[in-house]
Every structure is written in structure tokens, then in C-alpha cells.
What we know:
Rossmann fold; alpha/beta; Dihydrodipicolinate Reductase, domain 2; 2 domains; 15 helices; globular
Amino acid sequence: xxxxxxxxxxxxxxxxxxxxxxxxxxxxxxxxxxxxxxxxxxxxxxxxxxxxxxxxxxxxxxxxxxxxxxxxxxxxxxxxxxxxxxxxxxxxxxxxxxxxxxxxxxxxxxxxxxxxxxxxxxxxxxxxxxxxxxxxxxxxxxxxxxxxxxxxxxxxxxxxxxxxxxxxxxxxxxxxxxxxxxxxxxxxxxxxxxxxxxxxxxxxxxxxxxxxxxxxxxxxxxxxxxxxxxxxxxxxxxxxxxxxxxxxxxxxxxxxxxxxxxxxxxxxxxxxxxxxxxxxxxxxxxxxxxxxxxxxxxxxxxxxxxxxxxxxxxxxxxxxxxxxxxxxxxxxxxxxxxxxxxxxxxxxxxxxxxxxxxxxxxxxxxxxxxxxxxxxxxxxxxxxxxxxxxxxxxxxxxxxxxxxxxxxxxxxxxxxxxxxxxxxxxxxxxxxxxxxxxxxxxxxxxxxxxxxxxxxxxxxxxxxxxxxxxxxxxxxxxxxxxxxxxxxxxxxxxxxxxxx
Length: 500
């Protein structure tokens, strides 16, 4: 596992229910010859902040036949596949950056002609105009600094999820991407799956009626959370640039296997916990379908607690409240992690095979729990059992209906013609949007991904506040209006030498 892990582990195998088939629905084909105006017209109902494509005039590479070049920041763990998958689409990898020389040397065997660096600032300065694309697959706390530097140099940017460590960083990246007119994409791969787009269309068509309640849970954390900082320090391993790993966060001593290369996710200074790790995946489909932007309040219903302001809670349950928006009713969204789950009233309506998996986990027969999303409508529920929203079924009248048994609405979102794995599909969407060969553009661009990340990170404020307290949120001003104490967590000052 690399030190600059992307914001997720390698993609797990999709969970397939045994009593019926949940299709990764491909849907009917849509011609790529449709104009961008047609696509935008079809998707206008999604509302502001949802995918609207990006102007081809401002974003397209000079010629689809001219080879693109990429510099990859973070090439261990998820960064290993991110860099390789971009390279698979005829992109020349000209720069490799990782704070760990061992991981850097290993990746350089695949791209021996690439410039190597342990500091992305030095690499980008050195390569300058030789780079078209920058990939960012680092711990959460360095996403914004790397992506911002690249965009200001007018590079197209692919950045792992969550887009940023803080709410303000997400807003700044969204605004900068729009200003610079570059192609951007966040690594929530499910966005590029036809099944997710079909589920969005079905919900928006009224297939399950009026929605006022959403439940999403994850099997994370799978790393240590809920403890304080260990005492002492260990020698920094040879070849590890610890200063660059710490980046804009406050400096602290190195401890073997405590932060680097994997467990950084649970530490407040570096990661965003279970919520930041998985919400950009598991909430993606309902957020897009229901325009769940800018909550008006968030409450930590359950919170095992933060020890010495060091690690995120070992488990939590959050309630986000969304006001009426664009003709949609006020909606409550519930998030569960660390083994917390929705009520039995919800779980008992899910497939027996899925309920058995939950029971086996509770009995200690399974090492890891389940992930899922349930969208509760007045005419039924839409259930997705995977992390990416690409598989789904509708539950109506006690029946489980996969997409093949549903009357699907008219297609309003484009489909990606590339056949391949979820990760490869998203990289194809990104690269071909840069060249201008894929006219709709990236769906999880920073305009969309920034709002998704910003919305989810409001939950961090509740986790760092009082359990049971309702924190009222003013999204426009990016501040809590009924408790100024948590506003210090909206952003932080960067360590000297690091800027946005």
C-alpha cells in the first residue's frame, strides 16, 4: 500500500444478491453525436451543482490526435491504478511523484522515462508546459494544495475523493475549476456507471413517489479510529520525505505504521474518517437524484467521541436536514458508520440474502459489515447494496424489482460507450473529455464533486461538536449560525511553505 494512497482502497468485488439479480444496468444506447446543448437541456432538471458538462471551447485539447501527457501525484495504493489507468488511454506519463522513494522507484519501472520527484511542487515547476493532465491520489489533507497548484497552471485535474479535507477547500477548488476552464473529475467511480445514472433517472421520474427520507451506511472504518495520539517518535525511514507527507497539516513526529502508509484516514489532521472516505461513493446516487445540496442543519445522533482532538469517532450516526428545493419536499438524510445501521423497520424490507449477511456480521461470522443505500419514497423504496450506486432494485408491495422488470423512464443522462471496469470507465470519461472526443464531459467534475464533498463534510462539524446538538448551517456563508465554536473546523491555516 502506497504512502500516497488515493482516497479509497482498491475497488472491492461487487456484492451480488443471491435471491434475485441486481443488474449493473447499461440502459439503452445514446449517440455520442448528440450536441452538448441537447444533453444540457435533458439534464436541466438536475439543478445547479449537478452535472452540466463543461464548455468544449474552454476545455478541449488542441487535437484528439495529439498525445496528452500526465504527471501523477501519489503512485502507491490507489495512485498506482490511477496512474496506470490514465496511461491506458494513450496518455504519456511524464512525471511521477511520491513521498516514499520505494513506491516511486517501483512505479518508475512501468514508466522509466518519467521525471521522478518526492515533492509535487518541485515536479510541477520542473515540468511546466510539458504536462496536460495531473492526477492527485494522496491522503485527503494534500488534495487541495496539489489540485489547486495544477489548476492554476491550467492543467486538467483528476483528484481522488473526497475532493478535499475541508469545506472551504472544496468551495475554492470548485470556483477555481470554473475560472480556469479546465476539465476536472473526482474519483467516485460509480458516477461513470450506467446503473447509477439509471437509478437517478428513475427516482427523478417519480418511480418511487415523493422522497422525504434517505438512509446510507458503510462498513467503514476498517482502520483505527477513536483513540488519542501515541507517545514518542520513531526514526523516519530512509527514503521517506516526512515533511512532504505532512504537507499543509501541523507537523508531528513520525510513528511506525500509525499514519503512513494507510491509517492516516482516521486521524483528524490528515483524513476525513469513514464519512469522508465513503460518502462521496455511497451517497452519490441519492444526492444526485434528489439535489441534496447545502443542508440547513446536521446532528450527530450517535457519536462515540473524539479523543484529544486526534482521531474520528469509532462509530457515528448523523442526520442531515435539507429544506424544500426546486419543487422537492424537505428531506432527512441519515448516515451510519462503525457498525451502526438503519432501524429494523428499514432492514426487514431488504432482500433475505442481504439480511442474512447483516445477521452473520452481527454474530461475528463475517469480518466486515455491509454497505448500502435506501431511498424511501411514498410509492416504494429504491435499494442499492453496493458502495457505488451502480446496482439497484426497487421494493414495492413486498416485491423486489430489478431494472429489467421496471418501466424505465426516458433517458435524460448520457451513457459512456467504453466497455471496461468501473475505474477504467471513469478514466476514459476523463481523458476523452480532455481531448473533446466525449462531448457530454465529466459528470463528477469539480462543480458537482465540490458540492458533494462540501455537503458531506458539514457532517464533520457535528462530529467535532456535541452529540445530539442540532447545528444550523448557512451554506452560502459557509458557517454554523447557532454555534460559532465549530466554525474553526470549516478551514485551517496551512503550515508555512504550503498554499492554496
